[in-house]
Design goal:
The protein is 47% helix and 14% strand. The protein is α/β, with parallel strands linked by helices.
């Protein structure tokens, strides 16, 4: 009997030992699985290295495959998907870890602000501040701001004249058109030959350059066939009514309600199907982009993601712009205009458009420091970043 009891006790002890071993094996497997599971924005190897249960060998192995975890074990923001070599190169850039400045825009140039509001700069591991520069040309040229969304018509000529600007991506089509009085007899641009047309921000500035291309597209010489003259935007309707000018280049937002009530009529637009002219581009200070290619690409990516979001979500984007004070509170008008702008121009489209603009500016005598389109493209077209 005693022998039987001893045998029973031995069997029970063996069963308990086997049970404890099985529990230990299960715990080890769970920790391994946890080390391979990533939370959003964190690399799996970073989690494994940070795990208290990871051995020194496991940590060493994880570091070998990690693209975003330094020796301390904490993930570096914005490095997901980057190799160790890419991270090291980024950290050597002059502007790594420093506060960067974007030029605050409004309405159609507000993608830099939207990128901040939606956290896209932070996702790229960047610290940024909005900066209200007096002029995008001055802000970029002096490197007060590193990135801008602005008119190609305003920026290309200064760039070719020596201002330190490069074009890194497209932004959107539109956003200005030629308008005449709704009651006038002017039906097409051909009817404007021999008359005066307002380019509100001055001779040689963006309105002049846009108008020159719109007329040129219809075979009209902007120098000899018409008189392009500056009349301030708010005075253009009165100037049309008193016969001082026949037409004016105006923003579609400014003209929107006057077209609705019949005061104005559009005769030619950057958005016309046969033109589809790109309006604004993403531009950067050239020295900054060249000396900090990874940082610059990250900054450009944040803005391109914002533009893509604006294009794919016009209702939400318009509400956000109104909320931030970057559109006025006329939601329906702003929504209609924003839908027309095709936010998120591809690099391929932007390159094609920039090349055509450069060719037109050379032919029209607006760019005078070179006579070669390829030279302009090589110096000033520097596509960076991605919306994906």
């Amino acid at each position: 009997m005693k022998s039987a009891k001893r045998l029973l006790c031995a069997l029970l002890s063996l069963a308990m030992a086997l049970s404890l071993a099985a529990c230990g094996g299960s715990s080890s497997g769970s920790a391994s699985k946890s080390g391979q599971t990533s939370s959003p924005g964190t690399s799996s190897s970073g989690q494994a290295a940070a795990s208290s249960g990871a051995s020194s060998d496991q940590s060493s192995s994880s570091a070998g495959t990690s693209s975003s975890t330094p020796s301390g074990g904490e993930a570096i923001p914005g490095t997901e998907g980057m190799t160790a070599e890419e991270i090291a190169a980024w950290q050597k850039e002059p502007m790594y870890g420093k506060t960067l400045h974007y030029m605050m825009g409004d309405s159609c140039t507000a993608a830099t602000d939207i990128a901040d509001a939606l956290g896209y700069y932070a996702d790229e591991g960047l610290t940024v501040e909005g900066f209200k520069a007096t002029s995008d040309i001055e802000g970029l040229g002096t490197n007060e701001v590193q990135i801008v969304v602005g008119h190609i018509a305003k920026q290309l000529v200064p760039a070719t004249n020596g201002v330190d600007i490069v074009f890194v991506g497209g932004a959107h089509t539109g956003c200005k058109s030629l308008y005449v009085l709704g009651s006038s007899d002017y039906k097409t641009t051909q009817d404007l030959i021999g008359t005066s047309i307002s380019t509100p921000n001055g001779i040689g500035a963006s309105d002049y350059n846009i108008t020159a291309r719109l007329l040129d597209a219809d075979g009209i010489d902007p120098v000899n066939d018409v008189n392009l003259t500056p009349v301030e935007t708010g005075a253009c309707v009165a100037a049309m009514e008193n016969g001082e000018i026949s037409a004016a280049l105006l923003s579609d937002t400014f003209a929107y309600h006057m077209v609705e009530d019949g005061t104005l009529r559009m005769v030619r637009s950057m958005l016309d199907e046969d033109l589809q002219h790109i309006c604004c581009a993403i531009t950067m200070n050239g020295t900054f982009a060249r000396e900090n290619p990874i940082t610059a690409a990250k900054m450009a990516s944040a803005v391109k993601k914002a533009l893509k979001w604006m294009g794919e979500n016009p209702e939400e984007a318009t509400k956000k712009l109104v909320e931030l004070g970057l559109n006025n509170d006329d939601y329906e008008m702003n929504l209609a205009v924003n839908k027309s702008l095709q936010f998120g121009s591809s690099d391929e489209y932007a390159e094609t458009q920039l090349r055509q603009i450069a060719a037109d500016y050379l032919r029209l005598g607006l760019c005078t420091t070179t006579d070669d389109v390829d030279t302009i493209m090589a110096k000033y077209w520097m596509p960076l970043g991605s919306a994906d």
